[in-house]
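Give me structure tokens for this 308-residue protein.
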Amino acid sequence: MSGFVPEQVCDTIRFTQYSGDRNIVHYCGYVSDFISKVLQDESVDGAVYPKTCDSTRIMTSYLSNSGKFLHQIGVTTYGSAGAVEYYVYEIKRYKEAVENYYGISINDIKDRSEIVNKRNALIRKTYDNLADLSFSHYLKSIHDLLELPLVDQEWDYQGKGNVPPGKRVFVVGSFLSNLSILDIIEKAGLSVVGDTLPESGRLVSREPVDVSADIYMEIAQSILTSRLSPTQNSFKRIIEDDFAEISKKDVRGIIFLTQKYCEPYDYLYSIYKAEADRRNVPIIQLYLNNTQDDGKASLFLEAFADTI
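Here you go.
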């Protein structure tokens, strides 16, 4: 479900979108869809998810009678005492849970770390040239890549180049389940030149893992100190990092994507908007009900494009 699930341990197919019945009302749209997917999809063998916000903390209660493999990873706040050491413990606990449940031994963490390092470095080169690419095609290619086993995730992006230049925007949000939002953004004449999405901007911000050092410490350090999630309790650093990139890339507008009842991003938005207003950078918040919702996006984004 999250960038806090270490890929260096084992393959995890990321949840992208859910179209079936929803079991929970008045609950974070993404988490609600995730829970429903695990409960109702027979092809899903289990779920791994973080303990980062009120919605994720109680997920195990909803899933406890599913009969499937369940594991929740605790995540510390940024910069807190012993944060890296605690996350090391959580990574090891996750590894042991997988080994015990499936009756296997995991001995290739260093090899997998090198694959992740190489993949992220190649995606970073593409990310640095987003202004010349279709962001929609780029992110869809990443989603296709993440559905493969790690050993098959070879990034050789031959994406769409020479796209008509649009008004330069920066996208903020959690894992983007509904990729049609990106098509709507580009049809509105907007060009995404940077983002904070876990599968893109946050992924490429991670420092490579040094496989010659303590591998668990290296993985923990890489994940916890990459571009931050608002659940890590450091809005100040998020603002500093994001607006440094926004200034560098001459961004003309910010698109802030929020799932229904997602408290961390709701709280962050108020701080984000204040900083954007101070810098005279237009910002729009798209409030999505669930992982399929894009009903009003076209109207809002076309109007937003006109303002910038």
